[in-house]
Amino acid sequence: MSNIACALTIAGTDPSGGAGIQADLKTFQELKCYGMSIITSVVAQNTTGVQSVHHIPLQMIDDQIDAVFSDIPVGAFKTGMIATVDMMQLIAEKISNNPAPYVMDPVMVATSGDSLIAENARQFLRDHLLPLTALVTPNIPEAEFLTNVKIQTLEDMQTAAELLVHHYHAGAALVKGGHLSGEAVDFLYDGKEMHRFASERIATKNTHGTGCTYSAAITGYLSQGFSLMDAVKQAKYFVTQAIRHSFDIGHGAGPTNHWAIREEVFNNE
Ligand SMILES: Nc1ncnc2c1ncn2[C@@H]1O[C@H](COP(=O)(O)OP(=O)(O)O)[C@@H](O)[C@H]1O
Ligand SMILES: Cc1ncc(COP(=O)(O)O)c(N)n1
């Protein structure tokens, strides 16, 4: 199978398996992509929150990126948690010559409320990494920070998506509405048109890692050659099913179910 789609994630870890690198690799696997990962920080966390963080030395991040880029053609890649300005600077340099589509999940705060990146890194992310993206996938608080727009309505989400592309130079923007109420509505703006992706809101507290899973699914589909619009459409379906069949495990916000689009799960619905 030499023509397998290769998808890469550059992110932090979650030993409890619901978010970060672990969620990304599980998602790639479900989509039948060949999954690869570069670890930026090792995070001691679980469904209740973050206990401690160890940043991987810059040289080691550099070496990991070289190990992958020098050997295997990457079909698409994503970034999740990048904790410091130094890491961002290095990653920006490394990826700027890679032609594969880049999906940025602008991770700032975990579902538990714990901050995952340095205060000054947020601005650096917006000013230096955002212009390199094919797509950025902020949730409401992240979109608010990136654009300075207070987001309370579906119209505000669309305004933020347009600003991310036209003012902050993202390739495209997917503003996710998980943090509003009512239907779970996301808006994709590709620089020309606004697309709406909606699903029913599922009553669950188990949303640990939804953003990671969603952006990994988009990356996986892009690595397989789907258009941006189709990749988001398929990924929205994937994440909705993953939330619908999420696991009530752990003492906090449980993880999503990465194998929820398998046929046997549907057959048992
Ligand atoms: N309770 C829910 N029911 C259905 N879809 C949801 C629910 N919560 C979030 N989503 C969807 O999950 C995806 C992740 O969204 P969001 O929660 O906004 O991001 P993040 O996990 O980065 O905070 C989006 O497609 C959003 O619409
Ligand atoms: C290493 C890492 N990266 C990202 C998240 C965000 O998770 P969520 O998708 O729940 O916002 C996390 N909790 N840990």
What does this protein structure show overall?
With 269 residues, the chain is of the alpha/beta class. It has one domain: UDP-N-acetylmuramoyl-L-alanine:D-glutamate ligase, CATH 3.40.1190.20. It has helices at residues 20-30, 58-69, 85-95, 119-129, 140-147, 154-166, 210-223, 228-244, 263-267; strands at residues 6-11, 34-39, 41-46, 49-55, 76-79, 102-104, 135-136, 173-176, 184-189, 194-199. A five-stranded parallel β-sheet has the order 2-1-5-6-7, sandwiched between helices. β5 (76-79), α3 (85-95) and β6 form a beta-alpha-beta unit. α5 packs across α6. The chain is globular. The mean pLDDT is 95. Bound molecules: adenosine-5'-diphosphate and (4-amino-2-methylpyrimidin-5-yl)methyl dihydrogen phosphate. Residues 11-14, 19-20, 43, 45, 80-81, 107, 110-111, 116, 208-212 line the site of (4-amino-2-methylpyrimidin-5-yl)methyl dihydrogen phosphate (MP5).
List the helices and strands and how they pair.
Layout: E1 6-11, H1 20-30, E2 34-39, E3 41-46, E4 49-55, H2 58-69, E5 76-79, H3 85-95, E6 102-104, H4 119-129, E7 135-136, H5 140-147, H6 154-166, E8 173-176, E9 184-189, E10 194-199, H7 210-223, H8 228-244, H9 263-267
Parallel strand pairs: 1-2, 1-5, 5-6, 6-7
Antiparallel strand pairs: 3-4, 8-9, 9-10
The structure holds adenosine-5'-diphosphate and (4-amino-2-methylpyrimidin-5-yl)methyl dihydrogen phosphate (MP5).
